UniProtKB/TrEMBL annotation:
PROSITE patterns: ABC_TRANSPORTER_1, ABC_TRANSPORTER_2. Pfam families: ABC_tran (PF00005). Residues 2-206 form the ABC transporter domain. It comes from Algimonas porphyrae. SMART domains: AAA. SUPFAM superfamilies: P-loop containing nucleoside triphosphate hydrolases (SSF52540). Keywords: ATP-binding, Nucleotide-binding, Transport. This is ABC transporter domain-containing protein.
């Protein structure tokens, strides 16, 4: 379980999040709220990419900051945009991320190939990322998040810019993973989740 206690985030003098408290258990929670409410900010704080200005993040009851290495080993995170090393192939990029996560090479190769296949990148796995389309880059950015069977998966707009069929495959993978993981995600395409079971955590902009 991931727990946020009275989380606040301020950029300069601008408060973006204030008093956010919530427990996230196994399964999918979709973070909703109007543009600018702080959804991506909340995901970055949960993914330990940023530190909150105030409040606490707990993972399995322990402060995340005291066990950050352990937390990150259990984490898969796909932000909206990744600056890829364009000279690597998609497969080499996956293996690089897998190595950072501490996966043995054999398991890394097997998982990377399975994920690339499921996200429709198998044929292009050995092609340079420089040659990938925008949609292929998005799918690669998502694929890396699933490496290492994450216990916590954080996805910012995972199906944005994908066609309906590919978006459906991505949602299948997300909900399969959510059977054994805490999944937090944003999406402007909530209709595409019709028929699936998930929680909603709605956040609203702080009144000026
Ligand atoms: N690093 C930063 N420095 C300064 N302001 C920031 C920073 N990151 C986000 N903000 C501001 O925080 C607010 C919340 O941004 P955020 O991207 O989290 O919103 P969001 O709910 O995800 O929006 P959207 O639905 O449009 O993606 C915005 O006003 C944004 O300009």
């Amino acid at each position: 379980m991931l727990e946020l206690i009275d989380i606040g985030q301020t950029y300069g003098k601008k408060p973006v999040l204030q008093g956010v408290s919530r427990q996230f258990g196994q399964g999918v929670t979709v973070i909703t709220g109007p543009s600018g409410a702080g959804k991506s900010t909340l995901l970055r704080l949960c993914a330990t990419v940023e530190k909150p200005s105030s409040g606490q993040r707990l993972w399995q009851g322990d402060p995340v900051k005291s066990r950050v290495k352990r937390f990150r080993a259990a984490l898969g995170y796909a932000p909206q945009r990744i600056d890829f090393p364009d000279d690597l192939s998609g497969l080499d990029f996956m293996l690089h991320v897998a190595a950072l996560k501490g996966l043995p090479l054999g398991a890394a190769k097997a998982q990377a190939n399975t994920l690339l296949d499921r996200l429709g990148l198998a044929r292009d796995a050995s092609g340079r990322i420089a040659t990938y389309s925008g949609g292929m880059r998005r799918r690669l950015g998502l694929a890396q998040a699933f490496l290492g069977d994450p216990q916590i998966l954080i996805l910012d707009e995972p199906t944005a810019e994908l066609d309906t069929v590919t978006g459906g495959h991505v949602n299948d993978l997300i909900f399969e993973t959510a059977v054994r993981a805490v999944v937090l995600m944003t999406t402007h395409l909530q209709d595409s989740l019709a028929g699936r079971t998930f929680d909603i955590f709605d956040i609203q902009p702080i009144a000026a």
